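Milestone 3.1: sequence recovery, worked example.
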């Protein structure tokens, strides 16, 4: 089992930046892919982006490409970040961290472990 805790959410104005963090604990000796999802008000959960265990491969949804960037701590692979720039009101959502045992491809967006989420609100 892996426990995930997100942090860094908050209320910002459109155009601002925000950095989310996700810390994994528990059975972390296994290599894990990690990802961010979000659920906006009245919307279904959607995939934001993912990063491989080694951090060398990333995958993003089209609506965040060029604005968001995912990274992992170089010394502690169990910590992941989501740098969000040029935020828009439509980015308002609860952002969730997710993890799974590492696979060959990030393109399948199926994850086994989930955090509780952190609220991001972008005002216009």
């Amino acid at each position: 089992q892996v426990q995930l805790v997100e942090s860094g959410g908050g209320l910002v104005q459109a155009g601002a930046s925000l950095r989310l963090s996700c810390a994994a604990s528990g059975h972390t000796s296994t290599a894990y892919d990690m990802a961010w999802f979000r659920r906006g008000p009245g919307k279904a959960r959607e995939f934001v982006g993912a990063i491989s265990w080694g951090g060398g491969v990333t995958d993003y949804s089209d609506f965040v490409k060029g604005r968001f960037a995912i990274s992992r701590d170089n010394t502690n692979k169990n910590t992941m970040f989501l740098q969000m720039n040029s935020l828009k009101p439509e980015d308002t959502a609860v952002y969730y961290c997710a993890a799974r045992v590492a696979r060959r491809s990030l393109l399948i967006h199926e994850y086994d472990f989930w955090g509780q989420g952190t609220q991001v609100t972008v005002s216009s």
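The mean pLDDT is 94. The radius of gyration is 14 Å.
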